[in-house]
Write a structure and sequence with these properties.
- This protein is mostly beta strands.
- The protein folds into three domains: about 1-175, Jelly Rolls; about 180-335, Sandwich (Jelly Rolls), CATH 2.60.120.260; about 345-419, Immunoglobulin-like (Sandwich).
- Helices cover about 5% and strands about 45% of the residues.
- The strands form seven sheets. It has a five-stranded antiparallel sheet, with no helix packed on it. The chain has a five-stranded antiparallel sheet with strand order 2-3-10-5-8. A five-stranded antiparallel sheet has the order 13-16-21-18-19, with no helix packed on it.
- A hairpin with a 2-residue loop joins β14 (about 200-210) and β15.
Length: about 425
């Protein structure tokens, strides 16, 4: 009996320190080692699978208990090499939850720079059953070597069975067909393959807006020593549809957040099938550490008899890289107007975001008017439930702009994703 007790204790210690450092992560003995780094109340360990059923009959699983701490309690796994998001565009994970509609956040993060990350959230659909969730990140060139898992974000765990979750089998997936990139480019749709391709020493990823953590934008670092012409192309195969240039309509605009004023930003459009057909316009930034909308008029640099179906952006064009970071978003055809999201306005917080039905405006009690627009500028119909809650269940799936005017004359805006 003593021998058996010792064996079980030794097995438990080995299991708790068991670690795998590359995908697939299965928690099965003999497949490598896994080390959990718990934070802010999360407690994770590898245990025997006592829920062998359905899609998961493996012997070992991870158990995660949220016990006090913070509402964002979770755990992460540091890999020994970056995720392969060149050949794959998604990760899958099996989860076992005590309830349906529990949000599961799966975040991939750069190992050396925590501000470079992509996070996706999916809700469980069943209770006390194994199900597999697929998180689509798109193909990425930036290196991500941490996997962060947070169950029921926003709710404080109490250590009970209702705060206990199980997960298993973190694997690559390439089963989701993403929509091709097209104008407008907003970086807010996980179903779009933005296919950002850097050259000359640029390093671009998708991450959090520096003024709104709930908004996803493109983040470009022009690394030290990068070429004077270092840039980023939006899609190697070009847009799904050609840019609709026509007589009198030759303007594009995008939102930029630069560390300095007077930084030359060059926008180049070209024929995706003939790089010799192109036009480019350079516009300087005017402010530092603020969002502004830059307009590019291609009137004198393009031939309307040609087709332009690809675009590239160059920050600090003409100067070598110095590791400055630039944020950019909302690449539109047409001049900037009030229908486009005003990045210089105050940013509001709305939740849940994404939503399939109702959203609530957080922190504003004196709303005078609220308007919702599609990305092509069409005013959308919605139903007001109360002063701060609104029903958009009648809208089609996509990204919308919420614009609010308060009784004291302040303007607020943000984007919301309708699922």
């Amino acid at each position: 009996m003593k021998k058996l007790t010792f064996f079980l204790a030794a097995f438990l210690i080995a299991t708790l320190s068991f670690s795998q450092t590359s995908l697939p992560i299965t928690f099965e003995p003999g497949n490598g080692t896994v080390t959990f780094t718990d934070f802010d109340g999360g407690q994770t360990q590898v245990i025997a699978n006592t829920f062998q059923s359905g899609i998961n009959t493996s012997d070992s699983i991870a158990k995660h208990v949220r016990n006090g701490g913070q509402t964002w309690a979770g755990t992460y796994i540091t890999l020994d090499s970056a995720l392969d998001l060149t050949n794959y565009n998604a990760l899958k994970i099996k989860v076992y939850s005590p309830a349906a509609d529990i949000p599961v956040l799966l975040k991939i993060e750069n190992d050396t720079n925590s501000s470079i990350f992509i996070e996706k959230t999916l809700n469980t659909t069943v209770a006390n059953q194994w199900e597999e969730l697929t998180f689509v990140y798109g193909n990425q060139t930036t290196e991500y070597s941490k996997i962060v898992i947070i169950f029921n974000l926003g709710v404080l765990g109490d250590g009970s069975d209702n705060s206990t979750y199980y997960f298993d089998d973190i694997v690559y997936a390439n089963e989701v067909t993403l929509d091709p990139i097209d104008l407008p480019v907003t970086f807010g749709d996980p179903n779009v393959d933005y296919d950002l391709v850097d050259f000359g020493g640029n390093a671009t990823t998708l991450g959090a807006n520096p003024t709104d953590a709930n908004d996803t934008v493109a983040i470009t670092v022009k690394t030290t020593g990068a070429e004077t012409w270092a840039g980023t192309t939006m899609g190697t195969t070009g847009f799904a549809n050609a840019i609709p240039f026509s007589y009198g309509n030759t303007t594009m605009h995008l939102s930029v957040y630069s560390p300095r004023a007077d930084v030359p930003v060059l926008l180049k459009v070209e024929d995706k099938n003939d790089p010799g057909i192109y036009g480019q316009v350079e516009v300087p930034t005017t402010v530092a550490n603020q969002w502004e909308v830059l307009q590019f008029n291609f009137d004198t640099v393009i031939d309307l008899s040609n087709t332009y179906s690809k675009a590239s952006i160059f920050f600090d064009f003409g100067n070598a890289g110095d590791s400055s970071t630039y944020y950019w978003d909302d690449v539109y055809f047409g001049p900037y107007n009030e229908i486009s999201i005003n990045e210089n306005a105050n940013i509001i917080s709305v939740y849940p975001n994404p939503t399939s039905e109702i959203f609530v405006v957080n922190g504003i009690d004196n709303i005078q008017t609220i308007d919702i627009y599609s990305l092509n500028g069409q005013k959308a119909n919605f139903r007001k439930i109360s002063n701060n809650s609104f029903d958009i269940s009648s809208l089609q799936e996509g990204i919308y702009i919420v614009s609010i005017l308060t009784e004291d004359g302040h303007t607020y805006s943000t984007k919301i994703s309708k699922q």
